[in-house]
Amino acid sequence: MINFAALGNDLYTGKRSIDFVGRYKRWYLVSGVFILLAALGLVLQGLNLSLEFSGGSEFRVSGVKVTDSYEQTAKDAVTSVAAAGAPEVTTIGSSTVRVQTEKLNDSQSRDVQDALAKAFGTTSDKVSATFVGPSWGASVSQKALQALAVFLALVAAVMAIYFRTWKMAVAGLAALLHDLFITVGIYALAGFEVSPATMIGFLTILGYSLYDTVVVFDKVRENTTEARGNGRMSYAQAANLAVNQTLVRSINTTVVALLPIAAILVIGFLFLGPGTLLDLALALFVGIAVGAYSSIFIATPLLVHMRDHEPEMVELTKKAERYQQRHGGKVLASDAAPVDHGSDDDLEPAAVGTGERRTTSSTVRETHKYASPSGPRNQPKRPPKSRR
User: Fold this and answer.
1) Domain 56-132 CATH (choose: 3.30.460.80, 3.40.50.300, 3.30.300.180, 3.30.70.260)
2) 243-265 average pLDDT score
3) Under 8 Å CB-to-CB from 171, ≥6 apart: which residues?
């Protein structure tokens, strides 16, 4: 079995390393395939909008025994009294049948109620009828898009100020849009119904995706600051080490978040049926899974491509190459530790206890600046032996 604790420790220290940044073409190809499929789903099939967006009439037959033929029974009952196109029939829980049709007038609604009651062997008072206009759904969509625009603007501003570079903000927003587009495309391909609760879920997953990305970017900034001070790693290596150091944490966070959502999905599909809880859980499950992928495989490689050609980063790469040629070339977490003894170009082998670094072909050891060559400073000295 895999020892995840040991694996996480090895990834954090650099003993093991996955080249996320160097294999960017592979990750971009995978994302490109998902984006293409999402685009085809949206163009060819489109979104399955719920009644709140499309408008129409809804009937619910409660307190009945749901059999295997409930769907055909409901459709036959509706089409026998009204030309309502192809009704959509689903179950809610274990004893309620929901029928959605095009907009019907009052007379047609009463006829459909009576027909459904007769078909399912119940009374008309057990069949409820409601009408939802498309303007309500359009208002929800408009408000959701406005909230999305404000959210993205605030995120870009906060990230640019916090990380002191607009390129991190752009990379983070690109990962967010990547997650949102693929999630919506999966809904289109699978034919999942898009309800107002789904719209709320779409906005919620942006927060989860941003959370993972900011955690990785913060570690990238920390490693880069330390690499600038000692010249042991290039920007790409510092960023790749940051992804490895946060990998286990990202996986654990994602799994912990997905487990309760998966439980809600199972209960919803088996017992509750369509509803707000199921719509919200489905959007969260898809979005969180895609967001975990983008924060690891997309956001950081994209950030490296945007910054790796900056003059400061080019100089850092050259400095790291000179250092690694002298010391074996393996990047460890200890290589990101700050050093206060000047640049690596000025280093020469020194005797132990001088406060300088002593270098070998495989390791770099340091002596504390207050250390005494003869041992601890307070160690009592032995009196000289008397000569006989």
Assistant:
1) 3.30.70.260
2) 86
3) 213, 217, 299, 300, 302, 303, 306
